Automatic annotation (TrEMBL):
<dbReference type="GO" id="GO:0016787">
    <property type="term" value="F:hydrolase activity"/>
</dbReference>
<keyword id="KW-0326">Glycosidase</keyword>
<feature type="signal peptide">
    <location>
        <begin position="1"/>
        <end position="23"/>
    </location>
</feature>
<dbReference type="InterPro" id="IPR019834">
    <property type="entry name" value="Glyco_hydro_8_CS"/>
</dbReference>
<dbReference type="Pfam" id="PF01270">
    <property type="entry name" value="Glyco_hydro_8"/>
</dbReference>
<feature type="active site" description="Nucleophile">
    <location>
        <position position="116"/>
    </location>
</feature>
<keyword id="KW-0732">Signal</keyword>
<keyword id="KW-0378">Hydrolase</keyword>
<comment type="similarity">
    <text>Belongs to the glycosyl hydrolase 8 (cellulase D) family.</text>
</comment>
<keyword id="KW-0136">Cellulose degradation</keyword>
<keyword id="KW-0119">Carbohydrate metabolism</keyword>
<dbReference type="InterPro" id="IPR002037">
    <property type="entry name" value="Glyco_hydro_8"/>
</dbReference>
<dbReference type="InterPro" id="IPR008928">
    <property type="entry name" value="6-hairpin_glycosidase_sf"/>
</dbReference>
<keyword id="KW-0624">Polysaccharide degradation</keyword>
<protein>
    <recommendedName>
        <fullName>Glucanase</fullName>
        <ecNumber>3.2.1.-</ecNumber>
    </recommendedName>
</protein>
<dbReference type="InterPro" id="IPR012341">
    <property type="entry name" value="6hp_glycosidase-like_sf"/>
</dbReference>
Amino acid sequence: MKAFLRILALGAALISGIGAAYAQNNAISSADWNAYKAKFLDGSGRIVDDANGNISHSEGQGYGLLLAYLAGARADFDLIWSFTKTELLLRDDGLAVWKWEPNANPHVTDPNNATDGDMLIAYALGLAGESWRRQDLLDAGKGIADAIGRAALLRDGKEVLILPAANGFGAKDRTDGPVINISYWVFEAFPVLSNLAPNVDWQALRSAGLGLARDIKLGNAQMPPDWLSLNGEPKPADGFPAEFGYNAIRIPLYLMRAGIDDRKTLEPLLKGMTDGQGNPRTVLLTNVTKDVLSDPGYRMILAMGACVLDRTPIPNELKTFQPTNYYPSTLQLLALSFVARRHGECL
């Protein structure tokens, strides 16, 4: 693994982060945010994953905080943060439990963390704390960012990787470990996390993630799988589908939102996640389409890619936000907010 990670480091450019440059209040209209919160934010402050048994999770709370910040919805932000703080930030290591079920007693049914959720929460706290001059939010974001550095990163010499959770994915936990998920690299967050926790080498983490996004091309599909083993030659992790699936479709979105817009990085991912009819898809590494993704939130990622690479206008039907299910609706708002801030020529 050391040799592989050294190759990644040599092949990845050290691109400085610009995530906070566009992540500002009112990047999401009040109408779009109100439609989102009416569908997915309940009165207790939890974001409801309506396609997953109406559970809540740290990822959803992080997305909710980020979207509320982008909409300038301070009261909603505080409501989401209150639930997150009291119901999920229960672990001794400073990270959030990842899964909360409304019909279970106790509600927390898996106390492990999900590192992308922790990252999104800390990122949103850092943005809001700086913008709104809230030291309480900055302090909370710093605590989570420090905890990620202590408990959820894998260090190998100068290389740094994200473990999907503090437990269960390392070399001591699995015979094919370490196992990673490239979609857990929230690239736009690293500059903010670096300000919150400067003792953590976020630049090395970013560099490794860029190398993975560019270089991991497996099977006939020549795409990265959702779950990747780095024990020896990179390969799909045991016990997970060998596919570019619902996790991985976020990779190009995260890259573009972080200002990473070179064709060498983006084009293979966007092309590989497109079926023969121009629709987004999940794909087995055998290059067999598994699911065609007709939801506007998924289609918006391809449209965003065409805008970023070729200045192609966003189709009219994707400019109007109508919430469907939690996950694609979240991705659509993240994409629309980016295009509005950085590529208004496409709207």
